[in-house]
């Protein structure tokens, strides 16, 4: 079978929702293509497996940026999920929507129907909130949202310390007000990960009108006379083509979707010509407007042994949690590692938070890949800038689809981003100085006590600042010269082709991007079905 009504490229957070909603009525043949394997690995479903997923060559694209001019020519690590569920199968499972003002801003840019009042129904419809239904939460969706079931004691101490530093408590970051500190809710069910695949795809695999192909690399969209008609892909070394009666939908993410558009001859003429790709449709914004939450860690040694560390006493204590997991699906095996944190202001007179913090019960560095540091007893705190002004890009290394995209994050290129991140470091240090945490702390691992002035902290940021896995914006929604899709997510100038994933966000939302991407998938599905009627 090589003809379908809808072809979805990418089985991630948006793609899984699309596959569910487009196939639900039974009237349309839907095909979902995923480059990675099925989501059968225990590393995906056991929450603490997130530590190993950061290094998996099978389940993670393991992208690295090009040498960054703004960060001492470092290549910045950009992990992305490569399996059914996409990054929702390898992330830290935090359920965060962002702020009302984020979506109202999208609408103010001319994107009709994307204000908070318009997207809230989709957040509610896609979730099952274990706390129950409310104005902000729904109970009939596939994505299970629940409390953390691990809650190591040191998380409570962090929350106390943050309140001692003057930050208010908040038990629902997705309710009326995001500001404050507390526990994040997580996308888990019965102590196991609830990815977008588990929530929206797995329950529907038996539908006769839904075809899911894994381990396939889509090479290009097939375009005739400015109209998408299908895709070309390789599976086990063989080139195949399939065709869409209605639409081709790209849900390959903020790196994959612009790359695929350019490989298909849709994008900036200069970039395509550089790689001898025939220009089928010139669209300058493809791959531009890349945004990411620049993030940095402050790490301290600790005298406590009830943390995550590759040390005999810590490992012995953690092994006792195996019984908790088997008996009640609780304990550290269910940890997202980052379930305590919050949203704070870098200056008290701001109208809303501009920083997000995550507390880590481990001496973390380099995305957890620094095993030497993990052999020490330590604790860490992330802080990321919620609405950065710096912009990067995604281009090509060549016309071969097997090549990774050329990622240039360009983080910290804007001076205002630098200034706020210096304040973020000071805010984290202040929390560590509070009695609830300070009594057990040893020396600061980094930045280190010799790093105190603004210039010294800025240098530290250039040496250590990193991503927090929230790339967006490279196929942005809008109507200006760099817009790639309109507010119905249709690619400008090409019929029957849409982009539906985080790349369409015109600006980065104030928080983790998984829940918003699921919302985008659900809202887009309604748009697509409306057009089909």
CATH level-1 class of the largest domain: Alpha Beta
Tell me the number of structural domains: 2
* CATH fold-level topology of the largest domain: FAD/NAD(P)-binding domain
SSE-based structural type: alpha/beta
Q: Number of helix segments?
A: 16
- The shape is globular
Main β-sheet, in a few words? 7 strands, mixed
Roughly how many Å is the radius of gyration? 22 Å
Quantity of strands, as a count: 23
Under CATH, the homologous superfamily of the largest domain reads FAD/NAD(P)-binding domain
Q: Low-confidence parts, pLDDT < 50 over ≥5 residues? A: none
- Which percent band covers the strand fraction? 15-25%
Mean model confidence by pLDDT: 96
| Helix content estimate | 25-40%
Distance between the termini: 24 Å
Short description:
With 533 residues, this protein is an alpha/beta fold. It has helices at 13-23, 42-45, 50-53, 100-108, 116-126, 153-164, 196-201, 253-263, 269-274, 312-319, 321-328, 371-374, 415-432, 435-438, 454-464, 514-532; strands spanning 3-9, 30-33, 63-64, 77-78, 127-129, 143-145, 180-183, 188-189, 192-193, 210-213, 217-224, 227-235, 238-250, 266-267, 281-282, 295-302, 340-344, 355-360, 378-385, 393-395, 406-408, 441-446, 497-499. The protein folds into two domains: 1-49 and 81-148 and 198-289 and 470-533, FAD/NAD(P)-binding domain (3-Layer(bba) Sandwich), CATH 3.50.50.60; 149-183 and 295-387 and 412-464, Cholesterol Oxidase, domain 2.
